[in-house]
């Protein structure tokens, strides 16, 4: 016997997982996919929640790895480091927002297939 899941509920929960990063990059945004992963029994929603959590960890990791040295360099050079590395930071933001929008689009167009972010390391 095959279990069927509500497509609209799947779209909503999967989109909430990926779109939570739009709320902020703080603990609230990662709390949403964690809670959805705990309460949902839908395997696609669970997979999207785990992928969203992994993406959050990647955003935080790269922000620290790139942002801290740029911040220190900017402090030491009275802002010059921030100006020099603006293209790197801008590319990071575009990649971050672009991948999130791509994930949301995928959740709405292919609700029966979990989304996988490219270029990220996965903890879960």
From TrEMBL:
Record membrane topology: Multi-pass membrane protein
Main localization category: membrane
Places the protein is found: Membrane
Bilayer-spanning residue ranges: 12-39, 59-76, 83-105
Protein's UniProt keywords contain Membrane: yes
InterPro entries: MamF_MmsF
Plastid found in the keyword field: no
Keywords, sorted A to Z: Membrane, Transmembrane, Transmembrane helix
Signal sequence, renumbered to the chain: none
Protein name stated in the entry: DUF4870 domain-containing protein
């Amino acid at each position: 016997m095959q279990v069927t899941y509500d497509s609209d509920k799947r779209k909503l929960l999967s989109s909430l997982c990926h779109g939570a990063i739009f709320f902020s990059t703080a603990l609230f945004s990662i709390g949403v996919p964690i809670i959805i992963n705990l309460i949902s029994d839908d395997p696609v929603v669970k997979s999207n929640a785990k992928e969203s959590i992994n993406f959050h960890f990647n955003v935080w990791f790269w922000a620290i790895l790139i942002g801290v040295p740029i911040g220190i360099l900017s402090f030491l050079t009275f802002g010059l480091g921030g100006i020099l590395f603006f293209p790197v930071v801008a590319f990071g933001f575009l990649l971050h927002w672009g991948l999130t929008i791509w994930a949301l689009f995928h959740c709405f167009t292919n609700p029966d297939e979990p989304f996988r972010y490219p270029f990220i390391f996965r903890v879960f």
